[in-house]
Amino acid sequence: MSSVGAGAPRRQVFTAALLIVVGVLVLFVPAGDEGSVLVPISEGHGLSAVDGVGAALLAAGGTWLEVLVVRRLPHLALPPRVLFALGLLAGLGVGLLVASVFSGFFWWWAVGATMLGLALLVLVPLTARR
After folding, report:
1. Where is mean pLDDT largest: 91-95, 96-100, 103-107?
2. Which residues contact 33 (CB under 8 A, 6 or more apart)?
3. What does the UniProt keyword field contain (predicted)?
């Protein structure tokens, strides 16, 4: 392996994580400063232009990070049960996040984000390291 490409996975993981952090910070802009709702989603939820920018950054960074993890998955040498558990944890987390937006499960987003975050805390450092 050449010395030029040795740090590439780490740089890519860092850049994807940075996009995610910036997207989340943009989504934390108070509702009063966002402007009008462009697309109403449900009671108490709507998409403004600021939310659209934050969601786009979050989606781009999250998708890039997911691609990096999936491409490196064979090299991580994790046992099948661990992979299944991490996939189940992440899937339930994403499901709870989506359900909290489209239904009355408002505070379940925190549970879903925690579950997804735990799965990422295991996979992302392994992806960046190897």
Report:
1. 91-95
2. 50
3. Membrane, Transmembrane, Transmembrane helix
Task: Collect all residues with Cβ–Cβ distance below 8 Å to 26 and sequence separation of at least 6.
Answer: 50, 53, 54, 57
Provide the residue count of the chain: 130
Q: Answer whether 100's CB lies under 8 Å from 106's CB.
A: yes
The identity of residue 42, as a single letter, is S
Q: CB of 109 within 8 A of CB of 93?
A: no
Per residue in 35-93, pLDDT tens?
777 776 766 667 788 888 888 998 999 899 888 888 888 888 889 999 999 999 999 99
Structure token pair of residue 64: 């890039």
Q: In Å, how far are 6, 63, 98, 114 from 58, measured between CA atoms?
A: 26, 8, 14, 16
